[in-house]
Amino acid sequence: MSIRHGLLALLERGPRYGSQLRTEFESRTGSTWPLNVGQVYTTLSRLERDGMVTQDGEDTAGHALYAITDSGRTELRTWFEKPVDRTSPARDELAIKLAMAVGAPSVDIRDVIQSQRRHTVQAMQDYTRLKAQALTAVESGGARERDDVAWLLVLEQLIFQTEAEARWLDHCEARLIRLSRTATHAPDTPPAAESPSAPARPAATAATPSTTPQASEAFPPVAGTR
After folding, report:
1. CA nearest to 131, candidates 162, 113, 154
2. Which of 52, 57, 138, 214 is most deeply buried (CB count within 10 A of its CB)?
3. What are phi and psi of 66, to 5 degrees?
4. DSSP assignment, residue 16?
């Protein structure tokens, strides 16, 4: 998550102070990624160091205000125009957990998958309910319509993400079952080697199917599959 760019986007609308930026950031994203004031001020200090924001006096309550600079606007435009890089994906705890569960002693990977699937489906239902509320707020055209639309987009991304996760979990379970069955039916012993004195096999029999197991049959049984 790019906190610095999110703060720059909010500052483009006018000078803000730290806790105000935190409140607006969480309002825009529905508190999906909560910030603390320390994070905000640490990020503002770095942006100021890099010449992207500057302090702009105080408001009537004595809060120090920050304003975006031309350099900050250039950085923000670049961020909006440049696609999010997917060549170095962020660590995904669920993918790592399943990878570590494969072959782990005393771990039934199907139990891990089923437990996660229940949680994922519940999260999808929760997001769907929140989406209905956000749609109602947007259609009412209230004073916070901009934030409601932003929150709706975030919710829909979360719904698509959980739907994809549920499908991936189904795929993982089916894949592991197939591999386990394939390994169960693989030959236990390799075919006997031919005697060195045996005559060469006629060319006409070269098309005879080999008894060597194929690569897809060579997987060991997967721990936790039944």
Report:
1. 154
2. 52
3. -120, 145
4. B
